[in-house]
């Protein structure tokens, strides 16, 4: 993995776009400044994690990319084009979006849920749905089930498959695995990281879990009070760099790893 923050680790040329935040500010109606003049360049084909305390502005910043939240000031560019230009559906067609409790339609089968973005494009493609089930490592037979007949982890995989249906180059994930057990969380995180490298996707992932950010992403943005407090690599964070806010977040998985290692050595 390259050390330099922001360089994609994928060996192939990226298929995902670059994302630019230019002094992006979001002020809510009650005066809350959720995002405060954030400027940042996300390199095409890179995997970036957004971490920070609750309320630090991570989700708000992420949602300015697919226009779920319009900035009060500043702008967001995808491959140099302002996302506020043109109809929202046109911008979102090129962006996969995965969030916690993925919001599958309960009255549609798994296959129908996955095919939904294709239907909006007037495409019907059962082979594509099967390929997407393969991508997220779900048995094809699950396509006929209803969402209520799946486990939480399987539902989340279906959400990822649906987000990938239109073959977007950019994937936005907001606490995508937050409600899952640790094993499924780890497996899915690795699967996404593999997919990102293989396809050269640009991924922006909000997570509360610093260990997840360190293991899956190649660059970590630490948010505090609507600003980026640190912009660095997992390796640099593990060397103790990035400042106090970042190090307070790293301290949790570090201490856990040390306690587990001590248990392994037979310490009480
Ligand atoms: N619709 C809204 N109206 C007013 N304030 C809001 C609104 N949505 C979010 N906020 C505030 O904006 C700030 C940033 O919220 P945001 O959801 O972006 O943070 P976050 O870092 O994603 O938090 P969490 O980790 O808890 O999901 C918080 O103070 C929040 O209370």
Automatic annotation (TrEMBL):
Gene Ontology molecular function, alphabetical: ATP binding
Domain ABC transporter: 19-250
Top-level taxon of origin: Bacteria
Any Pfam family the entry gives: ABC_tran
Keywords: ATP-binding, Nucleotide-binding, Transport
Region (Disordered): 1-20
InterPro entries: AAA+_ATPase, ABC_transporter-like_ATP-bd, ABC_transporter-like_CS, P-loop_NTPase
Stored Gene3D superfamilies: P-loop containing nucleotide triphosphate hydrolases
Keyword flag Zinc: no
Similarity comment: Belongs to the ABC transporter superfamily.
Name of the protein in question: ATP-binding cassette domain-containing protein
Native source species: Sphingomonas hominis
Taxon lineage: Bacteria, Pseudomonadati, Pseudomonadota, Alphaproteobacteria, Sphingomonadales
